[in-house]
């Protein structure tokens, strides 16, 4: 399968000699990818960082802005508010996601597939949606306001509730993966050694979950810390960094301070990302591909308990989604609850009307097409191109950076970078192109990793076989790699589409007269307390993402059946 | 080896990947004359103005962006080095003065300027940097159904709002993001004096449940029962009453601060001709008749039809606000406000 190590360099040299034109072309493509990341990521970040150490007239003032910011008496409050709600939301999310994942993998309760599907539904929603639904449920006029025992939804309670909903599927997926990798033989061994159920849980299950839980901790923490949608809807006057940044820039016209807050938003997110990344790396080395999947024994009591727990969680998720749908149909909440479609007549509520939805489709379509091509081909270059090792390492690292980059910070840095008259690319400011560019960069890392994983699975000898048949790498790419990877490409495209439909953070600073998108429309409607139309637009976004994901799933089924015959029965 | 045709195709593919960062544009090629309008006025008002103007100029391609006052000004400042807007419609005057002082406005005297009332135009410069179209004032929205349920009577004055019975029932726009919020404060400063205004706000703060982002939100929150009382302006309340919400719009006895909003042309506008034509239209009799449908008080002399359901006695209650003073003291007022009330939910 793989050539003995010493053979590789000689073979590489041979290829370079026989098809040097192709090699140059590959390198040019790699350089193009590098240029893309430098222009779309590094230079804007650099501009932002330098803004942070300048005064309004552009003179260098060192850390003066940071000192000013920290001298504001309320800054520590804002910072610690952000920290506090992030830790609390993360703890609650992990607790629920851990239990849910355990129930899905370690019980035989009925409806596991259904529960799994329901748990992933929040991925389809913009983070504004849970906030809006919570207002209907627990707001001052909410249907279940008594449940809060007189406490106000607006503030930490609302933010935590919304964030738990929003981040639950992220935590669940990570924990679930870690649980699925537990080898059944470990349980068999525990049983043979006469370990009790409790002891088995603490010595086998929990250690396996521990990695998943800690990885999930950092993923969820970053998400909550940088999220903007939930606090802007139900944060009341409880300030957090993300809303403070919005306030500073949009309300106070203070771009220097905006840059400072942006940098502050970036640091904890970056730390969490780094730790999470290191954890991942340390762990995945230990996973053995040959683990035998655990099949739980029968246990009625456990199954009932698991079922009740999962049913409660699923009911909460569905309740929030249904509340948003119902809310969008009320005629005049809370005084006239007869149903009507008036909220969907967007032209009557918001200046951009339906065109915002059209723009979202353009953005999502553009990001899916352009992003998928770029990310997959980029991953191919990084994973399977011969030579240029250091260049690949540097670009490979750049591809990871967007994961730690809060969308709002990216958006702000784009204003500074692209709307500079001396920037030759300034023409894209205010167009759909800059929205697509920012979204592709913002979402880059996850699909990049998906593509890498899938490309790694392909036999490294494919290109070698190709070249021994005197076929170029491009032909191998087009005839073998691309078709085999179609499921992955499809998954990437649908991920990009879905997330472009629901994202808001980078776009709040970048949309223009002609490119207002649906999530921005939701934000503006909510800012004006037009709850019904805001709910309606959110529902439309969810419906669209759901349709795209279903389409992807259907295509996948067909594709897998046709193209994956070679993988054998397991796939 | 690669076939030549395939190689060309792949080169094209790579080249297009390289180029896509720059050339991947959705914008149509420039043909017709364009005009980019940034609006900060009420949605219906803005839509009607643009629709009527568009009917006069069918060949003009109008790009419009409507947002609250704060975001529009923030955007203009962000784009200062490289302006995207040609003309600003309906921005509050303190914001316009701020832009003027940064040299971002192009002075222009629209046709019929002599017909515009004095306090509705930039008096420091001729031709003026901006021309007012309409004015609006603070108001209090009160949800009568919620008031009845909770057993509180409608407040009649600003001082009433500090009564303990309204504790936790009031919302107010955050002046840091909302011109309406700033206007309320400026009004209080005129009425109670600046010191008195801070004392008043200290007392009011005890009753406020939330400071919110936009100026119309407090009134809409009152309309939705999310709050009982919203410090806001009349228009959203009038609309809610027309929709059947049990709401009343109250002009407090002590008087209310008013704010002029107007039109201004951006310096460095890419389409100055079209911008001037829109400015002419906004200042014209026809334009003012449109403004008058939404605001009782407009800039042109002799246009003053009553607006249906608008609270009575607004004009009599108006307190004269010096917007130059506001523009000058804005930063200081906002910083002070933030210092005093920005940490509503700080743990004790």
TrEMBL record, chain A:
**Localization annotation:** Cell membrane
Q: Which Pfam families match?
A: BPD_transp_1 (PF00528)
Q: Which Gene Ontology terms describe the biological processes this protein takes part in?
A: transmembrane transport
The UniProt keyword set, sorted, is:
Membrane, Transmembrane, Transmembrane helix, Transport
List residues of the ABC transmembrane type-1 domain.
79-276, 357-552
Q: What's the protein's topology in the membrane?
A: Multi-pass membrane protein
Membrane-spanning ranges: 24-46, 83-102, 114-137, 157-180, 201-221, 255-275, 304-330, 363-382, 394-416, 428-446, 492-513, 533-555
Classification via Gene3D superfamilies: MetI-like (1.10.3720.10)
Q: Which GO terms describe its cellular component?
A: plasma membrane
The record's InterPro entries line, in alphabetical order, gives: AminoethylPonate_ABC_perm-1, MetI-like, MetI-like_sf
Task: Indicate the family of this protein.
Answer: Belongs to the binding-protein-dependent transport system permease family.
The record's listing under PANTHER family reads: POLYGALACTURONAN_RHAMNOGALACTURONAN TRANSPORT SYSTEM PERMEASE PROTEIN YTEP, PROTEIN LPLB
Query: What is the name attached to this protein's record?
Result: Putative 2-aminoethylphosphonate ABC transporter permease subunit
From TrEMBL, chain B:
One GO BP annotation here? thiamine transport
Signal sequence region = 1-25
Q: Which GO terms describe its molecular function?
A: thiamine binding; thiamine pyrophosphate binding
* GO cellular component terms given for this protein: outer membrane-bounded periplasmic space
Do you know which CDD domains this protein is assigned to?
PBP2_Fbp_like_1 (cd13544)
Which UniProt keywords are listed? Signal
Q: Which InterPro entries match?
A: Ferric-bd
Name of protein: Putative 2-aminoethylphosphonate ABC transporter substrate-binding protein
Q: Which organism is it from?
A: Pelagivirga sediminicola
